[in-house]
Amino acid sequence: MSVALARELIDARANQLTPTVFTDRIVEVGAQIGAHVRVHDEAWLREHRMGGLLAIGSGSAEPTRLAEVWWGPQDSPAEGSVALVGKGVTFDSGGLSLKSSAAMVGMHTDMAGAATVLAAMAELTRHGAPPLPVHAVLPIAENLPGPTAVRPGDVVETFGGLGVEVVDTDFEGRVMMADALAYASSHRPRAVIDVATLTYQSIVALGPRIGAIIGRDLDLRAEVEDAGREADETWWPLPWAPQYRDQLRSSAPGASLRNHPGSDTGRALTAALFLGEFVPAHIPWTHLDIAGPAVEGSGADLRATGFGVRTLATLLRRLAKG
Q1: Which intervals hold domain Cytosol aminopeptidase (predicted)?
Q2: Catalytic status, residue 188
């Protein structure tokens, strides 16, 4: 069962599901569901100027990777695919902006977005061929401190050329997702949906059992909500809030954005605004923050729920019907 696959991956501890092991599993699942898979190494990431993703993985001895999974033409995903982007931080220590030891417990689950996307694609094939072209882009990294780790204040160049000031290395998810979103958008998809355990403030707003939806496209947002109701998973929209965009502007040389809003409030909203900078305005896009419902329990007893898998699979089937 696909939900069980997501739970298995999310519950695996950081030494059991390293970036290398995770990408091996992605290749394995891709073969099982008849999809094409490409795993890009650090040399490819440097060549394509994915400095955000590389920066987040730079403190770890584990290699950073970008995995693609799709159906359709073998050489490249088809134009007009639905793009799914899932955050794949296999362990989040906070990097040099180090978390407390208590806050680090459970951070092996910070790859729940990528696991959810992969499992939804597997679910989509349970009843035969997938009903529409789907292109998954999964950035995979381990966020650790180290002598080569990205430093607070460093400026990185993301795919497409936007410079980002990394004010806080514990706001890592949006930095690596920036490259993945821009790359997914470059394939001219019909829509982009990203899934991430991104902000604690989504839990503050909605509690631990409701997923947050934020996005520019109201029709796509409504489709996600309807799919969630059909799948018996609860989502709630938080506002698209461009009035807070100034909080993301950077004055650092070479940077137009910063990954920290400089405010303790509205961080779920400014996180979505940051991500939206990497998806062209003409592409329907919505962001799903599953920081709360992706897991249940606390501390060492944290367990994955598989939340979001059924919603995504249901959504894709509904989109296929037009």
Answers
A1: 5-312
A2: no
- The answer to whether 18 touches 127, Cβ cutoff 8 Å, is no
Verify whether residue 321 is a known catalytic residue. no
Give the residue among 134, 153, 143 at the shortest CA–CA distance from 197.
143
Q: Tell me the sheet residues that pair with 69.
A: 37, 136
For 252, the 3-state DSSP assignment is coil
In the structure encoding, which two tokens stand for residue 194, read together?
A: 């990203």
Spatial CA neighbour of 165 closest among 260, 87, 96: 260
Which among 38, 49, 99, 151 is annotated as catalytic? 99
What string of DSSP letters covers 74-98?
SSSPPTTPEEEEE-EEEEE--TTSP
Element (H, E) at 38: strand 36-40
- Cβ distance 127 to 112 under 8 Å? no
What is the rounded distance in angstroms from the CA atom of residue 31 to the CA atom of residue 27? 6
Which stretch of DSSP H or E encloses residue 51? helix 51-57
pLDDT at 187: 97
**C-alpha distances out from residue 107 to 8, 11, 46, 134, 248, Å:** 15, 10, 27, 28, 26
Report, as ranges of residue numbers, the positions in the chain whose pLDDT lies below 50.
none
pTM recorded for the entire structure? 0.98
**Which residue shows structure tokens 């950073």?**
64
Report how far residue 53's alpha carbon sits from residue 33's, in angstroms, rounded to the nearest whole number.
Answer: 27
- Distance between CA atoms of residues 197 and 293, nearest Å: 9
What's the CA gap between 37 and 49, in Å, rounded? Answer: 21
Name the active-site residue from 87, 174, 221, 258: 174
What beta strand segments (E) does 74-231 contain? 82-86, 88-92, 134-143, 154-157, 163-166, 191-196, 211-215
Q: Which CATH class is domain 2-155+170-235+265-320?
A: alpha beta
Distance of CA 255 to the CA centre of its chain: 22
